[in-house]
Amino acid sequence: MGWDNKSPPPPPPPPPLPQLEPNHHQHQNNDIVDGGNGAAAVGGVLYVKVMTDEQLEILRTQIAVYATICEQLVEMHKAITAQQDLAGVRLGNLYWDPLVTSAGHKITARQRWTPTPMQLQILERIFDKGLGIPSKQKIKDITAELSLHGQISETNVYNWFQNRRARSKRKQPNTAPSNAESEVETDAESPKEKKREPENLKLQASSTPGAEDLSFQSREISSEMLSVD
Amino acid sequence: MGWDNKSPPPPPPPPPLPQLEPNHHQHQNNDIVDGGNGAAAVGGVLYVKVMTDEQLEILRTQIAVYATICEQLVEMHKAITAQQDLAGVRLGNLYWDPLVTSAGHKITARQRWTPTPMQLQILERIFDKGLGIPSKQKIKDITAELSLHGQISETNVYNWFQNRRARSKRKQPNTAPSNAESEVETDAESPKEKKREPENLKLQASSTPGAEDLSFQSREISSEMLSVD
DNA sequence: CTTTTATGAATGAAGG
DNA sequence: CCTTCATTCATAAAAG
């Protein structure tokens, strides 16, 4: 498979030290069993299925490794799930069924607010009036008004203006800098009205072999950033 | 634009699981081994570590089950991360621990820090648990700990707590346990506690306090499977 | 039905 | 602390 083009595949967990402590009780009792089909006396010699300590150890190790891997995977899943759950109200991505979802699950798909045409019209009208971000009180009023046309909350209104402004700004950097044409990264000519510009990728200059550039930002916060209270 | 969509089910590659293939050679030839440390002659009786066919079968089954589980988990993880992996070609989000630095992929650093699931989990725990505002020293400690799970700076931690607090606060007036619940399909969310401010629609409160069931137990499986007895 | 686009919402970071 | 901004994520809606 040559899918190693882009998407970093899920890194298989590094099998850490397989520590098998949960159940140490492996048949250490030495019995020449004959119980099941494990032993057979042939010609006066007792033949049994035998495993040496070494072999047993190998098996135990293997099982332990699997257990560890499973635990890690489970932990990872929890973490990821937790993130998506906590970080986002909406989830409903994948819910895998194999051994967890035995019963029919009902993933509560979070619906997002969608403005009705009427609401949108009103919102647009208000927005076009040129006012910036409506104050909180303004938002309340608007919300009240829009409530007559459909389900809506103040947050919806707030978000709408927030997004509307941000995106209209992104759409047209046409601030018309009359003469001094600064070097700007403007490469988006939006033929449409409100079109988001596919942003290009960011910097990538880790030419250092074997060293990922993982410096995010480590500004010094010694001054007043952290001086709380 | 459309890069942040779900990825179509990619050709299911074989699970990149460590081939911990057990020594399947279950000694079909019956030998009373004594070679290793598995046998000992005591008082004229030969004691060896013995496993019946049944026991062997159990072991093999266990290993097989683990293998299957691991496969499924890996598959699930792929499904989970698929979207996000594809979502950002530029965001080689390391989800957990170290191994992301396997290949010299273009793990370009993002512009803004994004907590890994592990980090988020820890942060969340700290936030929930005790105190409210971590002191400067506390932040240092937390940062140090979180550094083990990914790049992070003290500023990140500080900001996170700041935002976390501010946004959780803006969500409290949701103290209506006596909700009539008139089954509105408009919106259904289970605010565990995070989130910003859904500021839900009037009597719209299916706020099931943390009724998430999206996690499964590994403990159960593990214990069951590891009990060879 | 699958892919693409539009856009509501979450959130890290900056400002005050 | 609180507000604002920028960027990102996820999904409804639209296109193919």
TrEMBL record, chains A, B:
<feature type="DNA-binding region" description="Homeobox">
    <location>
        <begin position="108"/>
        <end position="172"/>
    </location>
</feature>
<feature type="compositionally biased region" description="Basic and acidic residues">
    <location>
        <begin position="189"/>
        <end position="200"/>
    </location>
</feature>
<feature type="region of interest" description="Disordered">
    <location>
        <begin position="166"/>
        <end position="213"/>
    </location>
</feature>
<feature type="domain" description="Homeobox">
    <location>
        <begin position="106"/>
        <end position="171"/>
    </location>
</feature>
<feature type="region of interest" description="Disordered">
    <location>
        <begin position="1"/>
        <end position="35"/>
    </location>
</feature>
<protein>
    <recommendedName>
        <fullName>Homeobox domain-containing protein</fullName>
    </recommendedName>
</protein>
<feature type="compositionally biased region" description="Polar residues">
    <location>
        <begin position="203"/>
        <end position="213"/>
    </location>
</feature>
<feature type="compositionally biased region" description="Pro residues">
    <location>
        <begin position="7"/>
        <end position="19"/>
    </location>
</feature>
